[in-house]
Amino acid sequence: MTQQVIHPMVKLQRNMQSLVESDIIKTTDSIWKIALLYGDDWQHWKRELLDFGFSMQDPIGDLLAVETWDED
Fold first, then answer.
1. Sign of CA dihedral 59, 20, 47, 35
2. Residue 65 clears pLDDT 80, i.e. is over it
3. Which listed residue, 4, 31, 55, 66, has the most CB atoms within 10 A of its CB?
4. What InterPro entries would the database entry show (predicted)?
5. Using CA atoms, how far apart are residues 7 and 61, in angstroms rounded to an integer?
6. Is residue 72 part of a domain?
7. Is 2 among the domain residues?
8. What is the mean pLDDT of residues 9-38?
């Protein structure tokens, strides 16, 4: 039996989708708004998002639209 490892960005994406479905954030909100929710962990996630080409002004919907997280 093999177990797949979920990419950390998929976990972040799922958390964001859950927050959108709960009406805590909107898909049109800027990514920087999630900084308030992640507190001390934000610097890590910000670095990850920047590495994948996101800016903090991009809408959360752009993050949710990613289908695969390939690291080249």
1. positive
2. yes
3. 31
4. DUF4327
5. 19
6. no
7. no
8. 93
